[in-house]
Amino acid sequence: MLRKLLRRTPLAWLQLKREKTRLAVALAGIAFADILIFFQLGLLEGLFDSVSKPYAMMQGDLFLIDPLFESLNVVRSFPRQRLYQAAGMADIESINFMYIESGQWRNPQTLKNEATMVFSVDPDRPSLTLPEVRSHRDQLKLLNRILFDRAASKKLFGDILELLAQSNSVPIQFNDVQTKVIGTFTLGTSFAANGNIITSHSTFLRLFPDRQANQIDIGIIQLKPGSDVEQVQAAMRSHLSDVLVLTQAEFVEHEKRYWQTTSPIGFLFGFGAAIGFVVGTVIVYQILYSDVSDHLPEYATLKAMGYGDGYLISILLQEALIMAALGFIPGFIVSLGLYSIATSATLIPITMSMNRAVLVLGLTIVMCVASGGIAMRKLQEADPADIF
């Protein structure tokens, strides 16, 4: 059967390469659609990765937040008393908490303010797994000491790394309070903030004097080894009905859901990918429709020779699949370059994944086959009587 298949005349490929200009236009259109889909999906995945990073570095089994807490960008506080109530339940090993707020970092060179996310920790019992926090915990106990995210933009935040290499600390104005950068860590920028800093609870309350010390943003609970997380979570939810009790995975999904459904950014990225699919479908349909129209007498001749509609349709589908494969390759390669450029420009890691490549290839095939399916209606006009 394979030999028989190989002996067949590759009619679909011969028809496509006969009109080289038309084929080039079709492949360019498919590649453009793929690039648009790749870029939008890459940005969406980069968004999810960037906003999930802070949760990955939080050390805990269960997390308490206010029901109106939507994301790190939209934080709502709740009474610290709820955390103490949770501490009295069975299987609780330790509790901790964090304050989170967005403040204004003043660039020491340009004197311009830049929105920056602030995470506060207890220096004696850091709730973050970053090794830099533990190595600087004695310095963080001092008032007005902060750690700076080295992944932040030098243009926006100043020559902090160079200045820190020359001295043990760098004076910085934050929320009009004189502070000192005493070290760095690496977290990365996100759509919520261009930079991040970590400080102690006491310094945080000094930077944000309107905040109440007994109103916390995240309660962190560490369970005893061997504890059933789901069982403790269920008991805690029944005992504390006015707060949300989430596992770390649920906390991450809570953040992603905000950016995907509530924030307009997630919608725009998804909408952009859909537009790319529609554009590609229209381009391929126009190419295939024109090809069928130009070769309508030949198709009528094939019908007169005894070939059925099934054979003609298979030729059209083969053309669609060939264009899908050939158009995907340059779209994939160009997207890799655009990912690199976008990562350098935004400092948000946007990388190609195998799942995304397979998804876009599948969408490309569906796009081309769907276009071929629409163009098939033109084959019905291939009447053998037209050639006589």
Q: What is this structure, in a nutshell?
A:
The protein is an alpha+beta fold.
Written description of the protein model:
The chain has 388 residues and is α+β, with helices and mostly antiparallel strands. It contains 15 helices and twelve strands. A six-stranded mixed sheet has the order 4-5-9-6-8-7. It has a four-stranded antiparallel sheet with strand order 3-11-1-12. It has a two-stranded antiparallel ribbon with strand order 2-10. The radius of gyration is 29 Å and the shape is elongated.
Q: What fraction of residues sit in β-strands? A: 15-25%
Q: Could you give the distance between the termini?
A: 36 Å
Radius of gyration: 29 Å
Q: Can you write the helix and strand succession as a string?
A: HHHEEHEEEHHEHHEEEHEEHEHHHHH
Taken together, the total number of domains comes to 2
Class per helix and strand makeup: alpha+beta
Fraction of residues in H or I helices: 40-55%
Average pLDDT confidence is 85
Which residue ranges are poorly predicted, with pLDDT under 50 across at least 5 consecutive positions?
1-7
Strand order of the largest sheet: 4-5-9-6-8-7
